[in-house]
Amino acid sequence: MEAKQKPASSTSHSPIYQAIVQAGSHLKPLQRVHAHMVVSGLHHNRPLLTKLLTLACIAGSINYSRLLFFTVPNPDSFLFSSFIKASSKSGFSLDSIFFYHRMRLAQLSLSNFTFTSVIKACADLSALKLGSVVHCHALVSGFDSDCFTQAALVTLYAKSGDLVTARKVFDKMPERTIIAWNAMISGYEQNGLAKEGVELFYKMREAAMIEPDSATLVSVLSACSQLGNLSLGQWVNDYIVDNGLDVNVILGTSLINMYARCGDVQRARKVFDGMLERNVISWTAMISGYGMHGYGTQAINLFQKMRTNGPWPNDVTFVAVLSACGHAGLVSEGIKAFACMEQDYGLVPREEHHVCIVDMLGRAGFLEEALQFITESIHGEPSPAVWTALLGACKMHKDFDLGVEVAEHLLALEPENPSHYVLLSNIYALAGRMDRVEMVRNVMIRKGLKKQTGYSLIELNQITHMFRMGDVLHPQTAEIYRYLEELVWKMREVGYQPETESVMHELEEEEREYALRFHSEKLAIAFGLMNSGSGTLIRIVKNLRMCSDCHLAIKFISVVSCREIIVRDKHRFHHFKEGSCSCQDYW
Ligand code: ZN
Ligand code: ZN
Hints:
The chain is mostly helical and 587 residues long. Helices cover 65% and strands 5% of the residues. The protein contains 31 helices and six strands. The longest helix is centred in the C-terminal third of the chain and has 17 residues, at 477-493.
């Protein structure tokens, strides 16, 4: 337990001691008493200095506390621990670690609260190696079974991305604190393991020993956003309402993000409108939500409202506005927003803004203007991302000569990036230069470059199912493939013709060796249709851009199955309904 040592009772009755107590944890009054001590020659009195230092630590002034510390003759374990705790709490992590080291050198006894503070300091610095050394010290000193030390260790390992060790410590905890649960859940969520994060949250609910707090809910909402898990997200929202929890800015913004990213932009707006306090992040989340769904006008309207009576927009807001304009083809609005960025707000455009402008101009068919923007308006060497945006536009508008030029330029800029080879090979294929396609592929194989594999997620009865292309791992595989065959047959009856030719060359989406019909999103949709009642909305999350055949196929699926299907791909949402898509084939 905590090492505590009380000052000698004779001192505690002295008027100076009383004056320190009266000053409390307020820096200025403490410094006044300190001055008085110096004048009266009491500035080496240990009990007085100890009390003064403890209160200065609570006041949060680490610089002053550090100065004081060095005036104490032979500081004891309690004093060291107080200072280590205070510095760790105030974010002076290096101080914590340095004083811990000195404490060990002085062979003073360590306590659970020293370990908790030092481990927290290591976690804040993501100093995994140092943290595991402290973990060893805790083991040797017998504090590794203390629940506060354990919670700090879970935080350390989870924050540093070592989730396996974090989980090992977590599983061994006889009593799990809310800090440990939160650290583990957010560790999963922030390291791309949202599914594991959600599973652990269900475990937390099952254990029912501890109620989630707002930090838990923020992590869970972010995991829901990543997985497109609307039902759990909604549950969190209901939980907040039922328990009368305060929807602060962070929680509210998490809800907006969750609803927008799970495809329910109306609910996102409802949360936004209901928030008592909104900051620039909440406004930006809402604008970006509209943009993802192709609601450009709504995004612009909200941005105008923000300009007149909202918080000052930041550069991320402008990324959201410009990308919303791009996805909705609102070119003049986008140009206007881009102009006001520097003029009205003094924000210097970054790479992301340049990409948005090139993408917006390019999508709308202004290839010349986009090229002109790159060469004339960007200071310095334009980034590969800017050229990639132009290349996408060349592909969309079938300007293969410019496309080849851009792709070759990109490859020269970043010769080790596999996606550039894929793009170049695509554009050669589209331009009908098959010899070049072969050549690029051979280079890729020789260099051992691999592209990202695609997957799609669908959530059913609180379980997220993942499908990869040509997947045979799912327990319902046989039924899914049979169902999909039948579905394709029905689709063909109403006019669906697979876009084999063009798609065969779109190498970045999925391996072209596999039949088009087994792309992951089709498997996920077939699975969703089979396992849900008529009229149920199907929601899919895909990690890459959809290929044009899948896009066409899903339009037909929405007709033959009489279902509404929402697909979130790498860049935006597609709402498929009665044979058409909200992106207007523009993605
Ligand atoms: Zn596809
Ligand atoms: Zn679409």
